[in-house]
Design brief:
The complex is a heterodimer of chains A (165) and B (653).
Chain A lengths: L9 E8 L2 E6 L3 E6 L4 E2 L9 E5 L2 E6 L1 H4 L12 E9 L2 E9 L1 E8 L4 E2 L13 E7 L2 E6 L1 H6 L16
Parallel strand pairs in A: 2-12, 6-8
Antiparallel strand pairs in A: 1-2, 1-9, 3-7, 4-5, 5-6, 7-8, 10-11, 11-12
Chain B lengths: L5 H25 L4 H20 L3 H18 L7 H19 L7 H16 L11 E8 L11 H11 L2 E6 L17 E8 L3 H7 L8 E7 L4 H6 L4 H7 L3 H4 L4 H4 L11 H26 L4 H24 L1 E3 L1 H18 L3 E6 L4 E3 H22 L3 H6 L6 E10 L2 E8 L6 H10 L11 H6 L22 H10 L3 E7 L3 E9 L4 E9 L2 E6 L3 E6 L2 H5 L6 E4 L2 E7 H4 L11 E7 L2 E7 L1 E9 L13 E6 L5 E5 L1 H18 L1
Parallel strand pairs in B: 6-8, 13-21, 16-18
Antiparallel strand pairs in B: 1-3, 1-4, 2-3, 5-7, 8-9, 9-11, 10-11, 12-13, 12-19, 14-17, 15-16, 17-18, 20-21
Chain lengths: 165, 653
């Protein structure tokens, strides 16, 4: 699903997670919702601690902040849920992602992107597809495949391809 | 339906026909001279051949032709339906299936099968050469519906088949053909007038048209005392034809419309459409319960009336929907006769297989998911359960082993039992094996039932000799998982030397259940009503004294209970009067302590994502009237959790 189509810019939805800017390919995004009542799933890890009713379907609510070891401040008026469709165990699944704030859809030029550095990063490197520079800031494009496969666990258990370059 | 690929439709039809052929053949194996079954096999093969040719499955049609011919001879009593013949046709049937499905077939297979068939036919012998001398002349007039060509129909094979019956004169009747300017070349406007002289009965002519009979017009009359040629000489003028035909027509066999039993009209619908419809009904039920809430909080009389009406309609719709998805288990049971047939050959045991309650109905999805577990259980029964004929003889039993597969409905569940009269479960071996695998402590005291339940533990297999059939390590635990995945339960009872009974309790449907809505802390949960035994108040003194043990006495029985509040970490002050909902799976009972019982709730089950598969305590989720989500408790899992500390207590004390 990685759009390695040469140097085409990536249309991406950008959003904030505790001060960091993340981006997802716009094609994945189904809808951006205001917060709605959540149902906690007792015993589930904080990464997917709850489910929500999305148009008559019960979908998991994923907190990417757990995967990136970011603090989770209490929800604000800007908090949103980004609903994406992503394969999970081979089945296309609707998944809600928490976001502290959702920005616009922008084009990210492949020229300004680079792979995650091996050092100097506190996050699991395989959770990051690549980083993009924008106005002196850095946008993180997460590797959802890896994150979901690891169920958001930051301790490296069994990465799918450990030496991602 | 018209938009569907005709080839796909043919494949479905072929599958059904071949399934029927298999069943009929297996019936024939038991009752060799059952005329009706012989006719049924012949008709099925004939239809298959005809439809196959029409849809371009020429190889299939050609191959089927040989089997049909063989059965035609059986039908005429020239050849007996010997076991060899039936085996040969069964094998041929598998080949036909491969041809129909478009699977690649090995060269030479066909020849070998046909050789077998030929040998079987010749071997069956007893072919009295007395050809019935009464060759009769029939006048057959028929026309096909105009859209025949569009639907892929071809009249030529029909004429060819008529010609196969005997000397034949064919005339095309062009009366129906419009003037050229009005002519649509894709319409079939021709009719045919055929005079055929054959030794075969009238039904043979009817059989030619068997798969197009519904839409066509067909008129068969016997031409008495008129040489065929003469009849043909005066073909077209209708008045004359009528004159030639004596009123004898009324005397001859009943006209086809009456001769064929009229079955209630059936409609073939793709299963996904039913699933979609089911989803919509589910959402309707949710919307309706929301409406009910809105209506209840308003004083508008009209709104309340409408709400009640819609509630009524929604619940009727739901019931109809469930019935629509129901199919008789006979469909499923039928497949196992072949399995037993093969098993008997492989194991060298004589097995009598009987089924009961085939008309019991279950949701289609469930039936499909039951197939594999049942195959496993039946294999187990045949392979491990039944003894060899010598062993049986030695223990004074009849040499033939019996396996009974039965289904019956009991409330909102269907109970399927697999009964064998074999050696029964060897307790000593089960115990030894369980100790070896560390499932139980050596010398641990177990009730007979607990001991038997060990069979379902993961990694358990008592077969000392691993055979081709069963005992490959993936055993009863997989079966149990599948059954529990269907919200069902599995139990085994066994008497040494007399056999075992495995019972599966399966809910009628997967999509909607009746549930008990409860509140624990701030969250609401659904408990499947079918597993609820009773609701009692948790006595205050019990509640306070709970430190050491979580057991409550119910009618002189100790029932362990689980505080869902603790288990779910709600972290709030419990309500002063807590309730215990006693649930059970099979014989195990456990109490669930909840804060409040909110009442019953018709629940549309929504699956949880794979993210929550590991959580275990929940089997799904549902959407409540107010749009909130309630999780559905997985009773099997909770009961297991409740039994564990209890078992430890008992072992310790």
């Amino acid at each position: 699903m990685i759009a390695d189509n040469a140097n085409d810019p990536i249309e991406a939805l950008t959003f904030d997670l505790h001060g960091e800017t993340f981006a997802l390919e716009a094609g994945l995004v189904r809808e951006v919702l205001d917060l709605l009542p959540e149902t906690a799933v007792p015993g589930a890890p904080p990464f997917v601690g709850a489910v929500i009713n999305f148009r008559g379907r019960v979908i998991p609510l994923v907190d990417l902040r757990v995967a990136f070891e970011l603090d989770a401040p209490p929800p604000t008026i800007d908090s949103r849920i980004v609903v994406i469709e992503h394969p999970l165990d081979g089945e296309p699944t609707l998944i809600g992602l928490r976001a502290d704030k959702v920005h616009e859809v922008t084009a990210i030029d492949r020229a300004v992107t680079e792979d995650a550095p091996r050092v100097g990063l506190k996050w699991r490197a395989d959770f990051i597809r690549f980083l993009a520079r924008r106005n002196g800031d850095v946008i993180v494009i997460p590797d959802l495949e890896q994150i979901f496969a690891a169920r958001g666990q930051t301790a490296v258990v069994t990465p799918l391809h450990p030496s991602q370059s | 339906m018209s938009g569907q690929d005709p080839v796909a439709i043919f494949r479905i039809e072929a599958r059904d026909l071949l399934e029927q052929v298999e069943l009929d053949l297996l019936t024939l194996a038991e009752r060799q001279d059952d005329r009706e079954t012989i006719d049924a096999v012949f008709r099925s093969l004939h239809t298959l051949k005809g439809s196959g040719a029409m849809f371009g499955f020429d190889a299939l049609a050609a191959f089927t032709h040989h089997c049909e011919t063989a059965f035609d001879r059986v039908r005429k009593g020239e050849v007996a339906a010997s076991p060899a013949l039936i085996s040969a046709v069964l094998a041929a049937r598998d080949h036909m299936r491969a041809l129909a499905e478009g699977e690649p077939t090995e060269p030479g297979v066909e020849e070998a099968l046909l050789d077998d068939l030929r040998r079987a036919v010749d071997g069956a012998g007893a072919a009295p050469v007395s050809t019935p001398p009464s060759a009769k002349t029939w006048r057959v007039r028929f026309s096909l519906p105009p859209e025949t060509f569009v639907n892929g129909g071809r009249p030529l094979p029909l004429l060819d088949e008529l010609r196969d019956l005997g000397p034949c004169e064919v005339t095309a009747v062009t009366d129906g053909v419009p003037a050229v300017e009005d002519l649509n070349p894709t319409d079939c406007r021709l009719a045919w007038d055929v005079v055929v002289t054959t030794e075969q009965p009238r039904s043979a002519i009817e059989d030619v048209f068997i798969f197009v009979i519904d839409d066509m017009t067909l008129d068969i009359t016997e031409v008495v005392d008129e040489p065929a040629a003469q009849a043909v000489a005066e073909v077209v003028p209708d008045a004359k034809v009528a004159a030639i035909e004596p009123p004898k027509a009324a005397n001859s066999d009943a006209p086809p419309a009456e001769g064929r039993p009229r079955v209630a009209e059936m409609l073939r619908v793709p299963a996904e459409r039913l699933d979609e419809l089911m989803d919509r009904v589910g959402e309707l039920v949710i919307a309706q319960s929301r409406l009910k809430q809105v209506a209840a909080s308003s004083s508008d009389q009209n709104l309340m009336t409408v709400s009640e009406q819609i509630e009524q309609l929604a619940s009727e719709l739901r019931e109809i929907m469930m019935v629509v998805r129901m199919v008789p288990v006979g469909q499923l049971f039928g497949r196992f006769r072949r399995l037993i047939h093969d098993l008997a050959i492989e194991t060298g045991k004589t097995i009598n297989f009987a089924t009961d309650g085939e008309t019991t109905e279950l949701d289609k999805t469930i039936i499909e998911r039951l197939a594999d577990p049942l195959v496993h259980l039946i294999r187990n029964a045949a392979d491990h359960g039944l003894e060899t004929p010598e062993q049986r003889k030695a223990s004074g039993k009849p040499e033939t082993g019996h396996i009974l597969l039965a289904a019956r409905q009991s409330g909102a569940e269907v109970v399927i039992t697999i009964t064998d009269d074999g050696r029964g479960v060897d307790r000593a071996r089960v115990r030894a094996k369980a100790e070896e695998n560390g499932l139980i402590q050596p010398g641990q005291v177990l009730t007979d039932n607990e001991l038997l339940q060990l069979i379902f533990a993961p990694g358990f297999s008592t077969a000392t000799a691993v055979t081709n059939l069963s005992g490959r390590g993936v055993g009863m635990d997989v079966v149990k998982k599948t059954i529990e995945g269907l919200r069902g339960a599995i139990e085994i009872t066994s008497t040494p030397g007399q056999g075992s009974v495995v019972s599966l309790r399966i809910p009628l449907t997967l999509a909607i259940i009746d549930g008990l809505l409860v509140r624990v802390g701030a969250s609401r949960y659904v408990i499947p009503l079918s597993s609820v035994e009773e609701c009692v108040e948790l006595p205050v003194e019990q509640d306070l004294r709970s430190a050491g043990r979580s057991l409550v006495t119910l009618r002189d029985q100790l029932v362990p209970f689980i505080r869902l509040r603790q288990m779910f970490n709600t972290g709030q002050e419990p309500d002063p009067h807590q309730k215990i909902v006693v649930v059970s799976t099979g014989q195990e009972r456990v109490g669930l302590v909840v804060d409040q019982i909110l009442g019953d709730h018709q629940t549309v089950i929504k699956p949880l994502s794979p993210f929550h598969a590991a959580v275990g305590a929940f089997s799904g989720a549902t959407i409540l009237g107010d749009g909130g989500v309630a999780l559905i408790l997985d009773i099997g899992c909770l009961v297991a959790a409740g039994q564990r500390p209890d078992a430890q207590l008992r072992a310790a004390g």
